[in-house]
Amino acid sequence: MRAWRVRRPGPMDTGPLEQVTTEVPRPGPSELLVAVRACGVCRTDLHVTEGDLPVHRERVTPGHEVVGEVVELGAEAGDEFRVGDRVGIAWLRHTCGVCKYCRRGDENLCPKSRYTGWDADGGYAEFATVPAAFAHPLPGGYSDSELAPLLCAGIIGYRSLLRAELPPGGRLGLYGFGGSAHITAQVALAQGAEVHVMTRGARAASWRWNSAPHPHKARRIRPRRHWTPRSCSLPSVIWCCPRCRRWIAVARWRSPGSTSRISRR
């Protein structure tokens, strides 16, 4: 099969990726072998490729927004999937299942977590493997390219939206407008929310292109205390900041009994 591998992490203009021909991987006892149909590009893939993240697997194949078809099952893969099923492979591919984070539903924080395209080969190849427990059944009615971004940006954005506990017809603020916020905004609008986006440049233009009524151009300001009139408050706010950047969350007035939700992963 053909695959892209990280030859040597570095800036993209140095050619860190190389295309290779290699053997089709064999699924483990509890894994699926998937023929890749589409794989999105996430910023984390660039972090892995360019060396912004430490190397977890030498010459890894990146890609973790994978849509494909099951072509083989391991002997212990269970009966949830069959050959021919369309499935998704996302970033998270293994957790211990017993630590305090797994037990409370925060398995993304598991200290023994493993990730597609970082700890194991991902979807920039013609075939990929995934533990059956971490494969996502995908619905019909959507193209492979439409579904691929949902397997990372969509998961992150929708999880944040759920944790924001936005009431029907509520007002939602998005700070930043990358892939996750872009999808979150569309979901919130479809649910009848009033959505405000704080961003700059081309991303602000993209927001206007999507016919949303409330784009706000961001500008650099000195840190200061800022009071917002209650009539203009945003009951639910999601911060879409880059990971590994310094940020400070400042308490602000909110509706009685409501809470702020910030997810760093």
UniProtKB/TrEMBL annotation:
Enzyme class: oxidoreductase
Domain Alcohol dehydrogenase-like N-terminal, first and last residues per copy: 28-139
Protein name: alcohol dehydrogenase
Gene Ontology terms, MF aspect: alcohol dehydrogenase (NAD+) activity; zinc ion binding
The EC number(s) this enzyme carries: 1.1.1.1
Cofactor: Zn(2+)
Disordered, as annotated region: 1-26
Lineage: Bacteria, Bacillati, Actinomycetota, Actinomycetes, Mycobacteriales
GO terms under cellular component: cytoplasm
Keyword Mitochondrion belongs to the record: no
Naturally occurring in which organism (per UniProt): Mycobacterium intracellulare 1956
Pfam families reported for this sequence: ADH_N
Catalytic activity as recorded in UniProt: a secondary alcohol + NAD(+) = a ketone + NADH + H(+); a primary alcohol + NAD(+) = an aldehyde + NADH + H(+)
Assigned keywords, A-Z: Metal-binding, Oxidoreductase, Zinc
